[in-house]
Structures are given as C-alpha cells and as structure tokens.
Design goal:
With about 675 residues, the chain is of the alpha/beta class. The chain is built from 26 helices and 19 strands. It has 4 domains: about 200 residues, 2-enoyl-CoA Hydratase, Chain A, domain 1 (Alpha-Beta Complex); about 50 residues; about 200 residues, Bordetella uptake gene, domain 1 (D-Maltodextrin-Binding Protein, domain 2); about 160 residues, D-Maltodextrin-Binding Protein, domain 2 (3-Layer(aba) Sandwich), CATH 3.40.190.10. α15 packs antiparallel against α24 and α18 packs antiparallel against α22. The structure holds coenzyme A. Coenzyme A (COA) binds next to α2 and β5.
Length: about 675
C-alpha cells in the first residue's frame, strides 16, 4: 500500500542532491518497521526521479542510526511472525538490495551513532563520510545476538578479517577516524564540516557522466564475486551497454574533448557533460557562426606557405575548386549554414583510436567543426574491425542518411575493385566528400637477421615476418606485391586488426616488417620506434605529370621504383607491378576518404565539402597537421574524387581475377 505521509523519515531535494534522513531523533534514529516501509518506497521512487542525481542517507538530530529498533522491530514482533517477516523484507530490501545496486550514486553521511543494523546501509551506499566523533558499534554481541540480516557478511566483505572479527566479537565502540582507517568509511572530517564535505563529494559525482558512473559502480561491486573469465565477459558486456544506452555518448564526447578540443585532462577531471549536449558551446577561438568561404581567400594552389613544398612535392595539390563550384558554394551559403546550425555531427573513423587513420582524423575533426557552415559540434567515433569494412558497412546500411554522420576512412581500394562481399555497400554508392593523399612507408626492425644498417640491407635478410592487416586489405596486398617483386625471403602474416596492433607486433619483435601511411610513420612509428626500425622505401602516387617522386616530407626514403632499380636493375614491370600501380595510383592519391551515408541530403554533402575546402585554407589546421605528420596534406574534393571512385568499378576483369588469386594465395 502506498505511503501517503512520511512519519519516520524526511526527504529534501536541493540542486540535484536528495537528502533522505531517518527522522526518529528521540530514539537516536533506531529503525522501526514503519521507518523501513517508508525508506523502501522512497528509495524506489527516487531511483527514477529526474530531480535526484545523488542520494544522501543520513539521520536528523545529528544521529545516523542506532540500528534496528529493539522494541518495535524485535520485541513487539516476537509473537507476530507475519509482521516480522514483512518488516524484515522491507528492511533488507532498502538497506541492501536497493542501495547496493542503486542506479544513482549514494552517500552515507554518518554522525552521532552508527550501531548494529545501521551497518547495512552504511556499507550498501557507494560512499561514506563520517564525523570524526561518530560512535560506531557492532553492538549485537553485547545484547545477545550475532550481527544478523547481512551485517556480519557486509562487514566481513568490507574490512580485513581481523578488523571484522575484532569489532563483531568484542562489540567495542570506535570513532570516525578508526572507521576510516579500517575502510569502513571513505574519510572522517570534523563534525562541523560534515555537511559541506558531503555536498562537495556529491557535486564531484554529479559532474560525471551518469551512465558511465552507474556502470562503473555496478561493475566494481559485481566483479568482487566473479572469477577472471566471468569478469572479462561481464565488463565487456557492460562496456558495450554504456555505448548503446548512453544519451551523452560519453566515450566519444570524452575523447573528443581531450584529443580534439583539448579542453581537459582526464587524469585530473571529468569531461564536461555540458559539452555533450547537442548545442555545445563553441570552443574558444572558433569562427563566428555562418562563416563561409571567403571569396577573396587565396586559391588552394596559391597558398603562399607551401610554395617550396609544392614545387618539390611528388603529389601536387589536387583541389578541384572551379569557378562553377565556388559559385555553387556561394549561393548555397546561407542554406548550408542553416543545415548544421546547433547540430551534432558524428565523424566515423574506421580504425581504432591511436592508429594513423585516427591520428589524422582527429586533427581534421578538431578543426573541421570551425569551418562547416553552421558550426556543428563534430564528435569522433572509432569503429574498427574487418579491415575498415565494418564502419563503411555501418555508414552504408545503418547510419541515418540525415547528414549527421559521415565517414573518415582509410578505404579499401582492392575490396572496391574486386567486389569483395565483405564490403556490403560499394564505395560509389556513398556520396564523396573529400579525400586526402598520403604516401606509404615500409619499415623493418634493424635487428632483423643478419642485422640491418639501412633499409637497403633488407635485401640480405631472410626468413623474416612481415605483418599486415587482413589479406583482403590494400595494406597486406601492397606489402606482398612489393616484397615478392624484390624477391625477398619473408613470410607475410596478415590478419592484424589495425595498424596500431601491427606497430605493437613489430615493437615486440613478433614480426620484423610492416608498412604504414605517412601520418603513421611520422606521428607514431618514427617517434616511438625510431631506434628499432629503419625505413625501406615509400610508395607514392604519381604527380599530375605522371612522375613518381619522393614525397617532400620524407625526402630521404627512396621510392619503391628507386629501390627496385638499385637492387634489381631497371624498372619493375609485369602483372605484379600493374596490380601494384593500380592500387597505389587510386589509393594513395585519396588515402583517407570522407564519405556521407548513401541518400544523405545533397545540402549536407555540399556543406561538408565546403567545410573541407575551407579547412584547407586554415593556417592553424595546416600547421597542426604538419606538426604531427610533418607534411602539408593534399586534398581532393568533388568531381575528381568521384571519378576515381567510379573508375574502381571499371577495372580490367583480368586484373580483378589476378587480385582474387593473389588474395587467396596470401590468405593461406
Ligand atoms: N532500539 C530501540 N530504542 C532505542 C535504541 C534502539 N536501538 N537506541 C536508542 N533507543 C531509545 C532508548 O531506549 C531511549 O528511549 P526512551 O527515551 O524511551 O528511554 C532513546 O532511544 C534515547 O536513548 P538513550 O539510550 O537514552 O540515549 P543515549 O544517547 O544515552 O544513548 C545509544 C544512545 C545509542 C548509545 C543507546 O541508546 C544504545 O546503546 N542503544 C542500543 C543500540 C543498539 O544496540 N542497536 C543495535 C540494534 S541492531
């Protein structure tokens, strides 16, 4: 029966904290059956109360609780087993089942007396702060019973066995400082500071993501009684559950605020849950809303900062910004600005955090949001696996085509060419936004037998392992084709989940050689394993004149063609080389590709293209990119990219057959 009037407890709500206080101070807040019923119902209701963020359990009059009411709970129920059972059920339910698994954080604010049965709520709450002069006592032994209900159990679980035995068997009182020392409470403070300290802790808890906090507290409690295998499973499932059910998308928001916006340090504080709201405040220094491309801004190929780079670059900037396109952009300006105004856009990265795609994607995301008209909040979501295909399948099949999700992928050209069934949505079905060129660097451990002084010595090595992503991935195929053409004696080990995993394998000596994009080489491999590995050669797309020349960022690493000529004489040719160039010419010119979901509104695609174009004029972005990758990135936007993607479907059937055979061979 619902309780209409609270007689034994009080409930007060202030600024997200709900104070639930036992209210029988004249009985030192001893707990009567009626009090238990009121607590049970109240806690049940507060668990879903939107105003309640944190629950504090305390007692009025300066007393936490003198335990079960010896008169009304015990004596008066001696001859009333039904009443006793009902009261005991309610008592145990709120003091243990409810509080232990409560969906919101709970704090015990302890003062005066904490005796006997009150240890149940003391230890069921997530946190406890005590006044230093609180009197704690496991008094049961002193009046003739053992610490019942679950008191013996929860005390034994909470503190070291000797403390549990000592205080349960002797029933000696101890103070708040001793309670803190033995781990019965988090800390003890002078009584006059107790409330302020409780509020301080509650405010810290309220600053966290509620979904993550809830999962974390449940996890810490549940794994105590599980073995390691069960814990792995439980924690993995719980982790997935947060990602699905978290309205704040805490994982991506937290990473984005740290990695992209650089607005906080997770070691010291939580991410801002305000930033997680759809209408997040723009980061300091971002442009005013509606900032569109300035028609007076220099054309991309007129960038003064990059003149010498451009002259020596192997890949001339391929920006398609025709007068027509510029006019379209200008006319689309105000409408575009409206499209993303106040929105949150997800940039899906198809490899795990920390890898080269992620490094580059996060630099782009950090600056891109300042250039997309309407200034949406761009958050990054990593979705690795399947050689990058899981994320593109997700974008193609699951993501809403509303313009609010776009991909930043290292795409899989070969899968596109041969119609790999794992790639369920063909690349030409995705509206193309932009592509970034990148060369690829091959590298090898210098302790590879017989010991390498430079990349040239790789020709002397034999029996080494080259690790790569899955056999259907461009990364593995280009590894195999180049090393085969050089006649190296090696074993290809495909199947790694991402390039970060590949790097780790090389670092551990699990394999000796691998390849990675320029951002991976400059941003991760060179800085972390520069002493352990040497570069071998680079693969680059030809420039507009068809010339294959070293990328300006890595002028000391020979091209594959140079390396081949040096060791084998002449230029590589034959089917292997034709296949290799087919990949390289398409892939490296647009190594990272940004796609919208199929069916996304034209307006959104054009607005995002506009954002990318403007981004490439932003000195701050270019400098940031150059700092990590040591190169100024080349961009393809618009028709040129679309044409390259369309060409994938027109591959010579003989070549497609060759790729299939080669994949089958390296899969074995
Ligand atoms: N059950 C029933 N009544 C209790 C009670 C309890 N657990 N604890 C205190 N009371 C009552 C007292 O009987 C007294 O009632 P009265 O005014 O009708 O006589 C009133 O609360 C005040 O208690 P009192 O002992 O006078 O106050 P105090 O401040 O001097 O001492 C305690 C407080 C808590 C130290 C003392 O009351 C005590 O030891 N209580 C027993 C606590 C206990 O063992 N609880 C275990 C239950 S599992």
């Amino acid at each position: 029966m619902a309780i209409t009037k609270l007689e034994c407890i009080t409930v007060e709500k202030t600024n997200g904290i709900t104070w639930v206080m036992l209210n029988r101070p004249e009985k030192r807040n001893a707990m009567s059956p009626q009090l238990h019923y009121e607590m049970d119902e109240t806690l049940r209701d507060l668990e879903t109360d939107p105003e309640t963020k944190v629950v504090v359990i305390g007692g009025n009059g300066g007393y936490f609780s003198a335990g079960q009411d010896l008169k009304t709970f015990f004596r008066e129920n001696e001859k009333n087993p039904a009443g006793r059972k009902r009261a005991a059920e309610a008592a145990n339910r709120w003091r243990w089942e409810r509080l232990y698994k409560y969906d919101k954080p709970t704090i015990a604010m302890v003062e005066g007396y904490c005796v006997g049965g009150a240890f149940m709520q003391l230890l069921a709450t997530d946190f406890a702060i005590a006044a230093e002069d609180t009197v704690f006592s496991l008094s049961e032994v002193n009046w003739g019973i053992l610490p019942g209900a679950l008191v013996s159990k929860v005390v034994a679980d909470a503190v070291l066995p000797r403390h549990a035995l000592y205080y349960c068997c002797l029933g000696e009182p101890f103070d708040g400082k001793e309670a803190a020392r033995i781990g019965m409470v988090n800390y003890a403070v002078p009584k006059k500071k107790l409330k302020a300290e409780t509020i301080k802790l509650a405010e810290k808890l309220m600053a966290k993501s509620p979904a993550v906090l809830r999962a974390t507290k449940h996890a810490v409690r549940q794994v105590r009684t599980m073995d390691y295998d069960q814990s792995y499973d439980y924690l993995a499932a719980k982790g997935q559950a947060i990602k699905v059910g978290d309205p704040e998308d805490s994982y991506n928001t937290g990473l984005s605020q740290f990695l992209d916006q650089k607005s906080y340090k997770p070691t010291f504080q939580p991410f801002s849950t305000k930033g997680a709201a759809p209408k997040a405040k723009r980061a300091k220094g971002t442009k005013k809303k509606g900032a569109a491309i300035d028609s007076r801004a220099p054309r991309f190929d007129d960038r003064s900062h990059n003149k010498s780079d451009r002259e020596t670059s192997t890949m001339k900037t391929r920006i398609v910004l025709s007068v027509l396109a510029a006019a379209a952009v200008a006319s689309a300006g105000p409408a575009c600005a409206q499209f993303y105004k106040g929105k949150r856009v997800t940039m899906l990265i198809n490899y795990a955090a920390g890898g080269p795609t992620d490094i580059e994607g996060r630099i782009v995301a950090r600056h891109l949001q300042n250039h997309i008209p309407g200034n949406p909040n761009v958050i990054v979501k990593n979705m690795g696996g399947g050689g990058g295909m899981i994320a593109s399948n997700f974008l193609g099949e699951v993501a809403k085509p509303d313009g609010m999700t776009f991909g930043f992928f290292t795409w899989n050209v070969v899968a596109g060419m041969i119609g790999d069934p794992g790639l369920r949505v063909k690349y030409d079905k995705f509206p193309f936004i932009a592509g970034i060129a990148n060369p690829v660097v091959f590298y090898v451990r210098n302790d590879t037998q017989p010991g390498l002084k430079s990349g040239d010595d790789l020709m002397k090595a034999s029996g080494f392992k080259a690790c790569a992503l899955n056999a259907r991935n461009t990364n593995a195929i280009q590894m195999g084709l180049t090393y085969d053409m050089l006649g190296l004696k090696y074993k290809l080990v495909p199947g790694y989940q991402g390039l970060k995993a590949v790097e780790a394998a090389v670092l551990k000596g699990e394999c000796q050689s691998a390849n990675s994009s320029l951002p991976g080489w400059k941003g991760s491999i060179e800085p972390t394993m520069g002493k352990e590995v040497v570069p071998v050669f680079q693969l680059v797309a030809p420039d507009d004149g068809g010339k294959i020349a070293r990328a300006s960022a890595i002028p000391n690493i020979p091209t594959f063609e140079e390396y081949y000529a040096r060791h084998k004489g002449g230029q590589p040719k034959g089917m292997e080389y034709t296949a290799l160039r087919k990949i390289v010419d398409t892939f490296m010119a647009m190594f990272r590709t940004s796609f919208a979901a199929p069916g996304a509104p034209k307006e959104s695609v054009e607005t995002l293209r506009q954002g990318f174009r403007a981004l490439w004029q932003d000195e701050k972005f270019l400098a940031d990119y150059e700092k990590r990758v040591k190169n100024r990135p080349d961009l393809i936007v618009g028709e040129e990219g679309e044409k390259r993607i369309a060409d994938l479907s027109n591959i010579d059937p003989k070549l497609a057959q060759y790729f299939k055979g080669y994949i089958a061979k390296i899969s074995q």
